[in-house]
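Re: your question about 5-methyltetrahydropteroyltriglutamate--homocysteine S-methyltransferase

S., sorry for the slow reply, the queue was backed up all week. Below is exactly what I fed in.
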Amino acid sequence: MVLSSVLGFPRIGANREIKKAVEAYWGGKATAEDLTKAAADVRKASWTNLKNRHVDLIPSGDFSLYDHVLDHSAAFNVIPRRYTGLDLSPLDVYFAMGRGRQAAGVDVPACEMKKWFDSNYHYVVPELSEQTEFKLLFNKALQEYNEAKGLGISTRPVILGPISYLVLGKAAKEAPANFQPVSLLPKLLPVYKQLLSELKAAGVDSVQVDEPVLVLDDAAKLDKQYASAFAELASVSPRIVLTTYFARLDSNINFISKLPIAGLHIDLVRAPGQLDNVLEAIKPTNIVLSLGVVSGRNIWKCDFATALKQGQKAVAALGEDRVIVATSSSLLHTPVTLASEKKLTPEQKDWFSFALEKAAEVATIAALLSGSQDSKIAAAYEANIASIAKRREFEHTSDDAVRKRVASVTSDMYNRRSPFATRKETQAKHLDLPKFPTTTIGSFPQTKEIRNARAKLGKSEITEAEYEDFIKKEIEAVVRFQEKIGLDILVHGEPERNDMVQYFGEQLNGFVFTQNGWVQSYGSRYVRPPIIVSDVSRSAPMTVRWSSYAQSLTKKPMKGMLTGPVTILNWSFPRDDVSRKLQSQQLALALRDEVIDLEKAGISVIQVDEPAIREGLPLRRADWNEYLGWAVDTFKLATAGVTDATQTHSHFCYSDFGDIFTSIQRLDADVISIEFSKSDMKLLRTFQQFGYSNQIGPGVYDIHSPRVPSEEEIKERLKTTLSIIPADLMFVNPDCGLKTRGWKETEASLSNMVAAARWARQGA
Ligand code: MET
Ligand SMILES: [Zn+2]
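Result:
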């Protein structure tokens, strides 16, 4: 019989219970016991729901209060010294690592976060060195397995594999320059052996060991480590199902198929082409193949016919007992359930599947492959065929004007009129900025009042006019605040925006929205990605009135603020019937019109944020050029329509930009701001090494933590930065927008930042 499986489930809870509970705990409004209880309730609901949808292999241990990589670090005693000896409970140490802590005499910044592969989820980066003393402090997978068992639900524990854990980590400060985290594998393995043998002793039948780094090019060099590690683990472990996702295994399958594993999971949504290769490699073995046919990364209903074809091929090669139907990855990246969506039309609802609906899909496909005679299964198949046909019909309706406009884009539309050096001079005259101009990344604190006003407007409890008034007052307050603090390029603060992508999606044609489609970005921060369903166009200016209102309040330059085409695309659920390139081009043309309109309205500094450009980079290097080609081009298409006097900015965060350095240069933005405050200076050295020619504002402090950086700290940072970046190219700004911060810390931090910039001016 073909079994069904789900690799992981959203943690937020159907009604955002976990977000609320965690934030209440942080705010001192709930106890640790309250939090533990909320977590247990959500786990119970998830397991029960999966069981009710007839999923055979239900995950446990994948739940997290903040991040699953952080969970492993906490359990493995990978706790940097700065978080110990502070007299904090283990739970508070855990949260301090995730988000920093500044209270009652304790002042520690958060650990670094990084994007989880090519998703918008961020994990907390383990810090490793020879001094790391791995110890199994607790066995989370076992605890949750037993918890489910107590509820009468049998589960398959999920853990992050040892090699991925190390590769995703970084060298701690004390480690020598050439230190490779993966060199710690022999020291880490005993911990995994203990963890796995405890699972086995508890009666666990099989365990899901995630090794997502196996889809990366560099994994080819780790073949020996994989062979020795899994040989050791297999001897003490329950049966191991090795899971890979988000891309293809390519030649790595050659060594993977020789590992002593019971099962292998591959992603057939992202990489359907790998099936033949993998089947051939594992056919002579006993390995069970888990087919990731239901997308864990998008929300379109699965096309059963396609999934069945893949499934039948696998069954023909391996037999029913060696095939599992699964989600392509954890469902962490999808919302919990369509059932909470009250505003989608029945037609739209019929297009989508969220996590719980996807669970039903894997179960149905598995039943179909097992030759089920159940009439409900047959009916589900019929219904799927009908839905898919209807969606295909809808997809064929296109907006001809938009398609024609994309086709008629000319090459001069991609380039500014003059080269950067000329523009820099023109802008210097036009803007009259001091040396080391200070600015922010755009958003100011999204206070409760702002969220309330928006909610009230949504429920028609206040009128449009009242809302406008409210937003105007907010903008005015933000402008006055920035003048008082002494910033040089001001922003309007983005109070009118719920989210930097959703806000634009709501005003563009071609998008639909969910009410409750929350997806975790980091910690307790969740976003509701819009869904692109058809051709994209702009009906009217989107930001001009707010920006020009803000500009009318001050003599200082007001920066217009837009989200770039690649980021809108990457942070939405894209269509799967046309290319990402085409969707990005359509977005770029809409934004180009907006940029030109802003300039016409007297806005001389325009920032087009592309924080997600790096995250959209394909995981396999062979695919990079194609992506970077259109990603950079579409950014340029969006921004290049202005005169030399207009200063374009762009912003990037959370990435290893070294990889895409030449593409960042090719964007040709006049100023870029980058997040790097938590990484080391390596990134800036890359810019130096390659001779980045335009202006740059390396984030001088970390906004993802409530912690206030001291003036001294910022000066130190400026000093180091200035040893690498020429003074006349340097801007001074935080590393990202301030929307998640409170006013108090914002005021303190920005004042320190401005003071540090003034100090730098004197010295320079
Ligand atoms: C994730 S990047 C955020 C950029 C946006 N302009 C903001 O400030 O918040
Ligand atoms: Zn950012």
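The chain has 27 helices and 23 strands. The chain has two domains: 3-395, 412-763.

Happy to talk it through on Thursday.
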